[in-house]
Fold this sequence. Notes:
183 residues; alpha/beta
Amino acid sequence: MDFEFMFHGNNGVGHFHVGGHGIFEIPQKALIFDPSVLHYLMNHELIDNDYQVYLPDSLLKLISLSKEYDEYKEFLERFLFYFSYQRGSELTEQNWNRFYGNIEKISRNPITLEDIEGKEGYESILSLFKKHTFYVSMSPKMNFLGDVLAKIIEFSRKSGVAVLSKTRRLANLLRERIVTLEL
């Protein structure tokens, strides 16, 4: 399923158009973007909006570093492609400019460990991904993929903020690793 990325509505409610199937509303003016949405921002222009978008602090740090350093940009590209349906195509400078422009348009809020109630849930999810390939040199004691997923899941569980996904990659990853998940 594809969707057009449209945040609009002056009545305090956001609307998203979903591939010809109508419009659905998000009553809160807050969302958590999973990495597949970030990949989507490479190729689609984001309309100015007043949403509060939550992203894991480690992912925000990687985005920031990728503006200056090619090795971080390369890792970010691999990470975002991992969450997309699109495989094997190369991103152009235009894609990166659109991506960084879209990131600047959103009101970003970092999800930190302090935002998560208790670290037991975070640690248990993190441990499920400890042998995964996304092990980052910028923080050798942390599995990047596990950190991002654990912060997204635990923050959503604690706060009730919805997670917006473009693909089923996040759900499939969790289904593979977690038998029962309380949200």
